[in-house]
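Example 4.3 (complexes with small molecules)
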Amino acid sequence: MCGIVAAAASSNIVSVLIEGLKKLEYRGYDSAGLAVIGSQQIERVRSVGRVAELEKGAAGTQSSTGIAHTRWATHGAPCERNAHPHVSGHIAVVHNGIIENHEALRTELSAQGYIFTSDTDTESIAHLIESVQKTEPDLFKAVQQATRRLIGAYAIAVIDQRHPGKVIVAREGSPLLLGVGEAGHYAASDASALLQVTRNMVYLENGDIAELGANTLRIADAAGQAVERPVHVSELSAAAVELGEYQHYMQKEIFEQPQALGNTLEMIGGSKSSQPGIFGADAASILADVDSILILACGTSSHAGLTARYWLEAIAGVPCNVEIASEYRYRVSVPNPRQLIVVISQSGETADTLAALQHAKAKGQAKTLAICNVPESAIVRESALRFITRAGPEIGVASTKAFTTQLAALFLLTLVVAKVKGRLSEADEASYQEQLRHLPVAVNKVLALEPAIKAWAQRFANKSDALFLGRGRHYPIALEGALKLKEISYIHAEAYPAGELKHGPLALVDANMPVITVAPNDELLEKLKSNLQEVRARGGELYVFADGDSEIEGSEGVNIIKLPEHYGQLSPILHVIPLQLLSYHAALVKGTDVDKPRNLAKSVTVE
Ligand code: AGP
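Answer. The structure with 2-deoxy-2-amino glucitol-6-phosphate bound is encoded below.
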């Protein structure tokens, strides 16, 4: 989604703006732009396509104050005219989010004589601030007044040629943080953009407005009162967001999974007990009273939830439902104050998941737990309990290491709930913990299968459709495999529980349809083998991921890769890895933009 970078410093900041935008490229965008305070007037450069194009266009531009933006089109096509910043008179604005009342504002401002040159909702913010300035020349106060008229979610940054050396920023709903540098103050949509200048970050609250100068910073809250927000020292290292030896972020992140899992599970290193405290100080009392669990999430995070449902019901014996956040938030549901709401999100800023959490709380569901990869995110701050996965920054749009660390966190939750409910024997607890500790090694062994998986990818990359099958706790893994394949290789893919085949999708199977099957050596393997016969009998080509000890052999039309170990309940964490590699290599063969697939954004901060 859109990315913002802004700077007010004592020296030229154009390269800071450009470098910051490059770090935000992973969020997804289709055009980019910047505006700076010039010697006579605002200087603006915009371009369609990559930030590299903008960089060429901005060569020679110099200023100590400016704002920059990557745009992911919502209102209006991706073209230069719609790219940010938008200008009105002396001021320029960049914006992330959606202004819901922009049409009413456009009508009102057009009647005042403002000429709109874009199709965006953002341009109405620029004209609105300019219009307020006619009676309120103070830029800070003018932005404050103008934002009170905005309905929707936004993060904005504003400069005014008549107020050189200042940037005003404001946020409501969309993410925005400040960087406190030695010779300047900065703002950005996420910390990765600012690590080049500082590690000292200030997270703005909803409704905050801040004025940034080279040596000054002031913040006012939603009520207009001056406030101080704490400075956090970011633990992100600049190296963590570099590609290093890898060709793509997705490839890097797939291979970082052993380390990411090791970091996420660090707290169980020496201990043999599953303590509620790992989910927060109040976890013991909150979990003791829980009678059921509702998991809310989107995309890959929802697949982690669907997998956990099998664990929570089988091991902890607690009824569990999983719902897509965008559906739940608009459905009339029956609240249950004893139910634990678990929200899962890599970014912690996904608009639908955040809104679903707020919806649940508004209905009186106070027992909330966030499983998230970003500690200071809105979803974490709004939840009573939290577990921070330690996957490190995930840049590739296709989620990989975030997913497996979410699964690890959800398995820990299962053990903790099972223990609180008296359903976990000491022997089982010790055995599961041993398996968790061994996970990084087990994942490494699966990663070593890459050459064989790469060879498969060559063979079906020219297909236009693919079916993924799984059963039980591996059905959500099939869903995740299909999502990975479609989002980065653009091959149409569907996933079904294998038992559903004959209720419809079998009609699609012929020699042109690759059928990728997740077939671990579990209690459903024999049933799954019958489903595979149904596919073979219709000429479908099978690509089966089995386990080392599975009695399942390859034959004509049946291709088999065996994972080294069978991993019991935790097997989904291993079986998703070959599917990630398969999608990655299929996308490479097809030559798609692996890390920035078309039409998609990393953080979906609008509805
Ligand atoms: C996964 O590969 C996706 N790009 C997407 O489905 C993602 O998981 C979803 O948008 C949810 O994001 P979140 O985990 O940051 O909330």
